[in-house]
């Protein structure tokens, strides 16, 4: 049984509690800029919101024309900018406990004085811990949405993107298509060559698919040997052409090591979002098209049935 030490009540505890209450009231109502800045930053983990707050508070003591922030977080570039800039700059690398949390730059048309530079450094000192926490939160969120094997977004990210895309499609009458791609007979690759070879083929497949797609397209690992691709502003026939290019890219992806030379083919199912259709219904239609492609011989593409049937 865990022993819980007895905490005695000191005679001056009421005074300490009263002092704590007074300090809290002063901190929450203080017009002091550092107290106000840290108070506002503590209310959010959104890095964009924090930088907006920092810009607002900094502008009250050091006028500037533009604030820019750049960082590379979890393999993605984060860029924030406000204002139009100027020829003079004050640039700071935000480092804390040996870790880098981006570069903050203030720009304006007039040179910054030494007193102003000192003031900016004080504000950064008050903000750096909150900015670190926001950066770490982004990294954790990105990790939770990323497939650890291939480095591409995972099913959680796909579910979120399908919900967002379905809403956009309904609201703006925009055309979005979904491709599900499954590697044919992949289980036999694992059985014959082992999971290490299978894992490498999955990595190579993800890389070749990314090279084949447009910048605006999104690729996800749906699970196992199955991938999903979201195509904005793309109708069914165009999506089928993309699916066929993806299948060709997969076929041309060969794993070689010593005497081992392994390649696979892929089957694809395509569905274009219908007005009022839920993300689950959209995904189900793509999955049904993929099932038909595999049932009818594999290494081919099938389009989901809509009005008039599938193909």
Automatic annotation (TrEMBL):
GO terms for molecular function: diguanylate cyclase activity. Its cofactor is Mg(2+). One of its GO terms (biological process) is negative regulation of bacterial-type flagellum-dependent cell motility. One of its GO terms (cellular component) is plasma membrane. Residues 174-306 form the GGDEF domain. It comes from the Bacteria. Pfam families: GGDEF. InterPro entries: Diguanylate_Cyclase, GGDEF_dom, Nucleotide_cyclase, Rev_trsase/Diguanyl_cyclase. It is an enzyme of class 2 (transferase). Its EC number is 2.7.7.65. It comes from Marinobacter santoriniensis NKSG1. This is diguanylate cyclase.
């Amino acid at each position: 049984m865990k022993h819980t030490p007895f905490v005695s009540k000191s005679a001056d505890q009421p005074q300490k509690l009263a002092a704590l209450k007074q300090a809290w009231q002063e901190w929450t109502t203080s017009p002091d800029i550092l107290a106000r800045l840290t108070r506002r930053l503590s209310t959010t983990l959104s890095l964009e919101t924090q930088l907006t707050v920092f810009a607002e508070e900094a502008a009250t003591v050091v006028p500037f024309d533009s604030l820019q922030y750049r960082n590379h977080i979890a393999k993605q570039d984060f860029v924030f900018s406000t204002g139009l800039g100027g020829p003079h700059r004050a640039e700071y690398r935000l480092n804390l406990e040996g870790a880098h949390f981006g570069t903050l730059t203030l720009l304006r048309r007039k040179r910054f004085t030494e007193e102003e530079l000192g003031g900016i450094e004080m504000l950064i000192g008050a903000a750096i811990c909150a900015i670190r926490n926001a950066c770490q939160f982004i990294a954790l969120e990105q990790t939770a949405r990323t497939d650890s094997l291939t480095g591409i977004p995972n099913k959680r990210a796909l579910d979120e993107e399908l919900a967002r895309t379905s809403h956009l499609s309904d609201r703006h009458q925009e055309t979005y298509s979904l491709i599900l791609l499954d590697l044919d007979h992949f289980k036999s690759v694992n059985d014959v060559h082992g999971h290490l070879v299978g894992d490498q083929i999955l990595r190579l497949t993800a890389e070749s698919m990314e090279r084949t797609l447009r910048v605006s397209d999104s690729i996800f690992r749906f699970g196992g040997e199955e991938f999903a691709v979201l195509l904005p502003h793309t109708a069914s026939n165009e999506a089928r052409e993309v699916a066929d290019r993806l299948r060709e890219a997969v076929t041309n992806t060969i794993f070689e090591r010593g005497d081992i030379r392994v390649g696979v083919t892929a089957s694809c199912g395509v569905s274009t979002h219908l007005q009022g259709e839920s993300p689950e219904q959209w995904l189900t239609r793509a999955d049904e098209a993929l099932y038909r492609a595999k049932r009818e011989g594999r290494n081919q593409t099938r389009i989901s049935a809509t009005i008039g049937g599938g193909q």
